[in-house]
Amino acid sequence: MEKQHVCTEDICDIIIPPEGRNEDMMKVNLMDMSLAELSEFVGKAGEKPFRAKQIFQWIYRGAATFDEMTDLSKALRVKLEESAEIKCLEKETVQTSSDGTGKYLFRTHDGNFIESVFMKYKYGNSVCISSQAGCAMGCSFCASGIGGLVRDLTAGEMADQIVSIEKDTGEKISHIVVMGTGEPLNNYDALTKFLDMVHAEEGLNIGLRNITVSTCGIIPAMKRFADDYPQVNLAISLHAPNDKIRNEIMPVSRQYPIDELIAACREHVDKTGRRITFEYALIRGVNDSKEAIMQLANLLRGMICHVNLIPLNDIKESGLRGSSRLRAGEIAEFLEGRGIPCTVRRELGSDIDAACGQLRLNRIEY
Ligand code: SAH
User: Fold this and answer.
1) Using a 6 Å cutoff on CB, does residue 130 contact ligand 1?
2) Residue 40: CB partners within 8 Å, gap ≥ 6?
3) Mean pLDDT, the chain, as a whole number?
4) From atom 24 of ligand 1, which residue's Cα is the shortest distance away?
5) Is the CB of 309 under 6 A from ligand 1?
6) Taking the model in full, what pTM does it have?
7) 360 band by pLDDT with thresholds 50, 70 and 90
8) What is the DSSP annotation of 52-102?
9) Sign of CA dihedral 120, 122, 125, 130
10) Among candidates 222, 233, 311, 307, which has minimal Cα distance to 274?
11) Are 262 and 269 contacting, i.e. CB atoms less than 8 angstroms apart?
12) CA triplet 68, 159, 63: central angle to 5 degrees?
């Protein structure tokens, strides 16, 4: 029989994004394909569509080679081997915190490092994933942006953080938070493709309502996201009650002023009918005064929302300090009194620098 090459340049051009290709452009990376793309790929190779489902399921069960896909014929496995690969993240290190939280350092195929955090809650297991290597947003209190943006992650690299952690822990992940390094709404196409991949029944089968995407407030993308994924929870990194304070600590605020941001949040709640979460890192002497908190209460008045107060986690470069837990408790009480539901976040993994804002590319230290 004549040897058949599944991947012609043509197919690659149609369905494989450049970042999904090998350097020599010979093998396509199935990890970066949605089920629809995989079906197209498999169809063009002359195979039945259900094969795509089988392969997709194997990938999400953590198969890294075609040999593991035991319900595919040997001939098909050989054919796949010639034309495709499953390019996975490499696990470099795992640090486990006393509370069971695990911080994973992964290496991408092109030598970048990204971090993800595994957390156990009463309601299930959650993974906090990174959406970019590095971050361009430059928030003054956050370690993840110190080196700037390195590059966007692909959808497959986002999904593989979860697949790899399931494989490593032997635990099923039920919740995802896109709150690691990077600004997910600045990597919109990969983010939404990733959501489809993990939501797919044949993928990780994770409900959209169990997924939270956090943004520092990229307003146009928020509007688009509300239309495209109304069931996904949205969290806003607010951290300040006015432009003066916000401009000082979050440069993005100069582009998207707070009034416009809050208007977009109200619109989001109206459109989706879902509660929005505001993250507010309490920074001593910066955003935790009585006036600031009163202003915050006024800003959020009447909105279906929830405020997550996080006493700032230490980042040695920033020189900023977190408010005390006592102050955080007082603030929570005040906001609750104004009808704003609020919690002081229990920090997981801060002893291994896995808490909010502590993820950084400090590989040298590993
Ligand atoms: N870029 C997105 C996703 C990152 S989420 C966003 O800004 O929402 C990470 C969360 O941790 C954000 O709310 C971020 O503002 C917060 N954070 C960053 N540094 C922190 C720190 N030192 N202490 C507590 N929270 C921090």
Assistant:
1) no
2) 14, 15
3) 90
4) 312
5) no
6) 0.91
7) low
8) HHHHHHHHHTT--SGGG-TTS-HHHHHHHHHHEE---PEEEEEEE-TTS-E
9) negative
10) 233
11) no
12) 5
